[in-house]
What we know:
Elements: H1 3-21, H2 28-47, H3 52-66, E1 77-79, H4 90-93, H5 96-108, H6 113-129, E2 139-146, H7 153-167, E3 171-176, H8 180-195, E4 197-198, E5 204-205, E6 243-247, H9 251-268, E7 274-279, H10 299-309, E8 313-320, E9 334-335, E10 339-340, E11 347-350, E12 357-358, H11 360-364, E13 378-380, H12 383-389, H13 406-427, E14 432-437, H14 442-465, H15 470-489, H16 499-509, E15 514-518, E16 537-542, E17 555-560, H17 567-573, E18 578-579, E19 588-591, H18 593-618, E20 630-631, E21 647-651, E22 658-660, E23 663-665, H19 668-684, E24 688-690, E25 699-706, H20 707-716, H21 728-739, E26 746-752, E27 767-769, E28 772-774, E29 793-795, H22 811-814, H23 820-825, E30 831-838, H24 844-847, E31 860-865, E32 876-880
Parallel strand pairs: 2-8, 2-11, 3-6, 3-7, 7-8, 13-19, 14-16, 14-17, 15-16, 17-19, 26-30
Antiparallel strand pairs: 1-11, 4-5, 9-10, 12-18, 20-32, 21-32, 22-31, 23-29, 24-25, 25-26, 27-28, 30-31
Amino acid sequence: MNHTNNKTLFIQTFNTNYFLFKNIFSSQIDAAEKSLEIAKQAVEGKYGFLNQETFEKWSLEIYKEFKIGMNVSKNYVMRADKNESWFDPQLVAGSFYWTRYRKYLSDIKNWPAESIEAIDDTTNEVLKSIGDPSSSAPFDKRGLVLGYVQSGKTANFTGLINKAFDVGYKLIIVLAGIHNDLRAQTQLRLNHEVIGRIDGEGNPIGVSQIYPNDQTHIISSWTTVDKDISADFSGMSNLNSPTLMAVKKNKTVLESLRDQLIHHKKLYNLDIPVLIVDDEADQASVDTSNPDKSEDPKTINSLIRQILEIFERKAYAGYTATPFANLLINKDGETQSEGYDLYPKDFLVGLPKPKGYCGPEEFFNVEENPEDPRPSLIRTLEQEDIEVFTPIKKKSDADKFEEVPPQMREAILSFMLSITIRNLRGQREQHNSMLIHTSRFKDVQTSVKDGIISTYNIIAKQLQYNPKSNIIDEFRTLYEEDILPTSIAWPEETPVFSWDVIYEELRLVSKKVQVFEINGNSKDALDYNQYKEKGLYVIAVGGDKLSRGLTLEGLTVTYYFRNTLMYDTLMQMGRWFGFRNGYMDLCRIYTTGEISSNFEHLAIAMIELRQEFDRLAELKQTPAQYAVKMLSHPTMTLTNPLKMRNAELTNIDYSATLQQTRLFDRDEEFYRNNMNATIKLTEKVDFVWSNKTKKKNSYLISNAVDAEIIKEYLISYKTSARADKVDSKKIVDYIDRVNKDRELLEWSVVILEGDAADRTEKGHLPVKIGRYTINRAVVRGNKVKALPSSEKTLDIRAIVTPSQEYLDIPPSETKGIKDRQLKREKRGKEKGLLLIYPLNPNVDVFRSINVPFSEVLVPIGIGISFPGSDLEIKGNYEMNNTIV
Length: 884
């Protein structure tokens, strides 16, 4: 009996039946057990007896893959209508289009079961929220699906489209961005994964491979990869049969589509259900008109709403990873000609973060844990590179780019090494991309491309023909001092290759890299499909076309200089987010300290937005009650100011959060001030040593400290001038406000000591703080490289470990609780915790500044753990002022 074949049959049979039964049975385990039983019967019927040991082994593997019986994170949903929905998952459990797509993902694309199940569950939630296409009653449903940048939103709405056709929707329109490239990319994806196609030789491609002989389930399309909607009315199929189209958000295109739909409605007396899926729903779709001046809705917004108004039965589902603009739409916006605005009045669905997804928090280290072992992947640009691009402010400045600067050159070398290592790891013939984004001006992009081609040709020729070239030494140094140490320190185990092996593969790689310019002036195109057999190795130089929606396959190295002061634009420019299975350690981002800081702030804002969404959804709030708070920034805005007419600035709420100082200034007075403030605190507070177990380090602690002493300390203590949220003055203001409501009146103060297990020189610096001597300063920031003098602020990353945050709470009270907010609630609303960290200055990041540190002068970091609060706090957050 062929072991491989019978296991394949076992898994495929299980998959088919499990996705059917899980929507029929009330218990996930019952559905799994029934599916396993059928899978066993299928194997035995074809191959003979299946022994119990093998059956149990395969069953266990399936249980783990599908997380059956385990607690899986819930997909939170908000709905306006809390009554029972028309939709039952059984309607699509064995349906044609969804089953075909699911089997395509599983059998052809080899997607993990967990990812397919997430698509199944979340698309069911969307279907529950939109109208019943089999009903003759009119409906108008509008909602938003919140995902992550480069996280598989397209796969999700493709699943939704397949299911929508199964339940009876006739026309589905996908609004696919504002550029031709993204629209064509979306159309190609839909051709493969919804419509199904036969190639020129008669072979089925895409989902057609699943049921190649099916001739009954035909989906028409008014658009092709090369052709969008035009003013030509000929050749358009009757919309009474299933029709799918991918159209650009463009005035001429949408006007033509509107006119043709009106024509068809009159010609055929159409009364069909329509679904509009708006990809990148925050781009172009949001109305920026000023109602106070009686302005009409802006063109794209107006046309989308006009198209919806053509139909009596209609649903709109926007998809975005940056929902700032969408959540600031006037929830009551309506005009006579266009009908309701696009506020997600009926539903909000939050997609779960996919397994293996690398987003802003993975790249920019915003986790509240200094023990995170991952080395930073950010490479801060030095002054020499910054000076090349700073003077380039308009398209006529293109000639100011004369040659590739040092770190751009290093980034190219790093990219070539990343391809080399991926090949050696068994990822040969995969796509590899590098992104260079320095300006939105096409003339500048051309100059940069020409410079890169010139530099690359020299590098490649030296590699291929001159074994004694200095360039080879550059590669080796970069590999041994950056690439290799990062990979070795990475949590996932990675194979290590000798330089000789790297060198030989590198020479082969150097013959295959191409340089493309991706903009309207260039004929270059990122057509990965053309290179699917052997993989495309490309350095892509571009601007706006590379900054939203368009996927760069196998992106490893980014050189990014162009900043923006809008959250949504900045987030979408981060094309490096996505899935990097097996090569995350090879990824690098070369950018400025300011841009890196802005991205990190944005990562925190997105995390908080999702947490607030989950919290309100759990409380069964409706979209009309969703006054989500979005963290503001001193210089950046959430989105285009014209989209923020309904935004209202409020105050910071520190309730149930941990705040910690990561940013430190460069001047000596900053450190002396905070050292003196801490000494004065120790003169007013009596500390005792605590060392309850040998496994824990000693620390000084004082309980029941009056809030006035804490506020006085924080007034004296200076946080970095560039800190936005961890601002000592704002924290004092918050404490002062909640004190009036009898909260945070009593504090515990802890002064931490360094790790006794640290036997390095860094771990043995004693520190004198007034009448107390700390045996060992706390080592933090040891993984941060020395920063150039151009950087005004040092970022040492997180300083508070999870265990230290709860030193004032008996362990028995937090046992078994994983949620950090719930743990903080155990403290009680009247109590706060102040953690003080005398930091060891003998790390590179502090050595890079000119401050005479000693036993009596060290950097002082603080962490503050806040309990929950009953007080409604208005803070430095943007909120939709049309939400009551």
